[in-house]
Every structure is written in C-alpha cells, then in structure tokens.
Amino acid sequence: MNFAMLLDMAAEAFGPRVAVSCAGRQLNYLQLRAAALVAARRARAFAHLALIDGNGLAGPVALFAAAHAGVPFVPLNYRLTATELSELLQRIAPAWLVGPRQYLEPLALPTLIECADYEALAQAALPAAAAEELAADPEAIAVQLFTSGTTGKPKAAVLRHGHLMSYILATVEFGHAAAEEAALIAVPPYHIAGISAVLSCIYAGRRLVMLPSFAPAEWVRLALAERVTQAFVVPTMLVRIMDYLAEHSAAREFPALRAIAYGGGKMPPAVIERALQVFPGVDFTNAYGLTETSATVCLLTPEDHRAALASPDPAVRRRLASVGRPLPGVELEVRAADGRVLAAREPGLLFVRGAQVSGEYRESGSLLDEAGWFATQDCGWLDAAGYVFLEGRADDVIVRGGENISPGEIEAALLAHVAVADAVVVAIASEQWGEAVAAAVVLRAGAEASSETLQQWVRGRLRSSRVPERIVFRQELPYNEMGKVLRRIVRGELEHG
Amino acid sequence: MKLLKPGVRLKSAVCGTEIMVIRSPGIEALLACGGAEMLALTDSPAAAVQLDPQLSQGSLIGKRYVDAEDRLELLCTKGGEGALTLNGSALSVKQAKALPSSD
Fold first, then answer.
1. Cβ contacts (< 8 Å) between A259 and chain B: which residues?
2. Which residue of B7, B63, B102 is in closest CB contact with A299?
3. B92: Cβ–Cβ under 8 A, 6 or more apart, which residues?
4. Most CB atoms closer than 10 Å: which of A55, A251, B57, B94?
C-alpha cells in the first residue's frame, strides 16, 4: 500500500479534471501525477523530501513525488526561525528541499541538503510520463511531521503508508465528489489536517483551492471567487472570518458553500452557535484527531449539530460541545490512571486503536501498547450515547492537593460570564497545595468585572477547589497560528509576574 | 492459487482490471477476473486465456469488493470488463457508509 495509488486512480478515472489551483495556476490530475513522477526520479537520491512552503501547487506535487520515490515527505513550518529550520534540516539530511526562494534564501543550509527548482517542480507537467511501479512497502514511512515542540526539542511523528491509506479508504468514497466541488485549504501543509485534506480531496475528485497563508479577507475572497463548496478551519480562523464578515458587509452570502469542517483546537460553544447563524444552510462537522492518528478519529456530524440545536434535552444540546463519535474502524476507550476502562460520564484518559493509528516517533519508536492502543494524552469522557467530550491535555491537568482538576470546566464557567471574551486556566505553584488554580482572562470591549466577581461566579457553579486563586486580566491570550492557546507562556507569566 | 495479504496487487489476465487486497484472513485462494486467475503486476498472461462471456459484468475503479463471508476485501484500482470471483463465487460491491467530509 502506497498512497501514491490514490493519485494514480484519480488520474485514471478523471484525469483532465482540475486537481489543484492556486493564484491563477492549476494542475489537472494527469499533470499533477506527471509532475510528481518527474520529481520522484530526483527525490530517490535522498533520504527525505522536505518542503518549506505555505499552501500552493508544489505541496501536492512534492507529497506524491515523495510517495512515488518511497522517501518520507517532511513538510516544515515556514514560520520557524532560520536557526530552528537549519536544526531540523540537519536531522533529515541528506534531503531534497523544496520551497520558494523567499523561504530558502535566509537559511544556512547544512551539508547534504540540495534545493529543488521550486518553479520547475510545480510546472513539470509532462504530457504522458511512463507508469512506474510504486514502492510497495506499506511499512515504509510516508510522512514525518515535527511536532510543535512545546516542551524541548521538536519530536518527529511518523506516519506510514498503511496508516494514511487506511484512513482514506475508511473515510472517503472514491470519485464521489461532484464536478463543481472545491475545497478551500487554509491549514498549512506541515499540519496533519493539511496533508489529509490533500489526500481526501484527490481521492474524492474534489478540486483543491490553495490559500497560501490564512487571512480572513483572502479566505472570503477565494471562497466567493472560486465558488468553494467546502472548507476546513480551526476555531480561531472561523472567529476571524466571522468578525471580518461582520465588519465588512451586513449580509455576505456564500451560495456555493455547503460544508465547513472544524478541528485542531477547542471550539467554544458560543463560536459554533454563532457560526450556525452566520452560515445558515451550511453543514458543520467537528473533526477530532491527532497527528499520531493520521488525522480524524471522531466526528460530530451535521445531523448531530442540528439535533443538538433543536433538542430540549440538555444532554443532547450539550453535544454541540462534543467531538462526536469514533469513525468506523476506530475504537476509543476512556481509562483511569490505573488502566481500568471507565463507564459513561466518568472522566479519564482517552485511548484509541485502529489501522490509521500510528503513535510512533522517530526518536522513541512506537508508543502503542501491546494490544495496539495509543494514549492520546487527551482527557475526556463519553456520554450515554458514546459522544466524546474533551477536557484538555493530560499535561494541563492541575493537581491541587491530590485532586485532579481539568482546566476545561473552569474555562467554560468563566466564558459563560457575560463580561468574559476569552479565558485560560493553568496551574501555578502553591506552597499549601502543590499546585493551585490560576486564570488569565480577556474581558469583552467595554465590559468590567473584578477578580472577586469572577471568583464568586465560578464558586456559584463549581466546587470550591475549582475557584481560581489568582485571576489576571490581559488584552489578549497567546495563541499559535493553529489557534492553540499557549498555556506554557501563560503559566510562565503567572508564575514570574 | 495466491496468498492474498493486505497490500498485494494483482491484475486481470483478460482485461484491464487491477486490484489491491485491503483486508484478508491471509488465505491462499483462487482470485479470478473474467474467469481467469489474476496475475502479479509483473507477470505476462498466457496467450490462450480469454474473457469468459459469462463473467463479463465488469469491475469498477474505486469500488470495494467483498466475498460472501465478508472476510476478503479488495479495492479495484483499475476497472475492466471481467467480473471478480473468489474460488468460483462472485464478489459483490461493498456499500460504503456515507461520512461527511472532515478535511
């Protein structure tokens, strides 16, 4: 199993259809395959094919070239500093590096890194490249993604061809996209969601509309100009798109847009409720997944969203804040710290198992247990119908006097206050308790609330151990470009300020 | 007879059909297309074999085929005129569950 087969099949079945477009240029499936085959001949001489780029035509070409060549595809974050990038490149040498001049020129390239002619790569669309046998080993490494490295050196997560193929074959029906379908790709190519979007769309026959780097104005412009039918966004992107729409036009309609999927970070209930109003008639899907699981493992479907909104039952309504249920072929368990499998409503650690689950790092090897289960490091619980609710990362749990406290429920309580626009809860060191609860809060424009008011508010809703001992007010919270709040920075500020 | 392991790719001896094994109990079995045993991608068909008109219902690219016990699953990676059979019994198209696009 080699995922290059996905493109081979698309080229065979609907070759002349446009596969990917970006900034006025486009490649059909035959051209994309031909370009990938040409690039694969060169890539074979290296141990890795690396990419430093935003979304564009070169990304899909490089992804499939790597697969055809049987070398790992290593997309790198172009926002990293030149020093950070050089360090990562050293770790993957000898590598063939693809990227536009603007990103490559500032780099001090280690030895054994050779740069590709980026422009030629995206244009090398020979009319009929000879079919070549694929490197067939399903155990071969397909993609290597450096994790954001919130603690120490970035780790290299490894996905093998068998993982990605299992995900695509289990979730996408070949060629089912209608001819007019187009997906707007705003998630960067070095994120698992950016890679899975390329593979899914190509196998479905859905045109990829590449947004080189996310900005709300450009997202809106492309969605309209390219008659985009679906899109994947992280929650912060959705907020910025809606704010942009509110500022720039009273009623901007997207007649072609049918579906928006979201994931990659926690979706505040207020944001999704607002989105359902701003985009009436659009299907919303919540996708929960991790790099180590080849993207999505749980889905909250459009029907789930509608049922939750319409239901008078609070348990069903609450599912708007859930990440849905596991995909077919994915098993999910909630376990206690001692390994015991927990019943519905009992919070614990989430474990997943399935053919798409890798759980492997270049440095440490496979982290799956003997039965194939992967510890996601996410905390959460299931409701009676098996809907999954997330409560944050295990690392973020606050241990106060032996009691485990998840920041998620306290953040939800703070966000429910009318004056609060954003909130994050972290642990701070405490002589009395070991760790104590602290919060950084952003107030809505013009709103006022004291720490005492907010402490009272939380006390009225949660157990007293959950009340933040310290609340600080900020103009904004630190987020990374994928919309994840950077807790370690907040924690550092609170401990040292 | 061929050992059908996940990832194994075979081609028809009598038409353009190609398949990949997706799921298999690891059995040795006679997988045929259009009545003739399927071949490894690198094999050349014997000159004499021809499509059996009784087995010319065709295969469709992108469809998944399963046996009656749902133990063996194939992905058709290139379509052709021959019908797929396992030990003489027809394979049927697996009905896919419709999932919303999540990426």
1. 100-101
2. B102
3. B65, B66, B68
4. A55
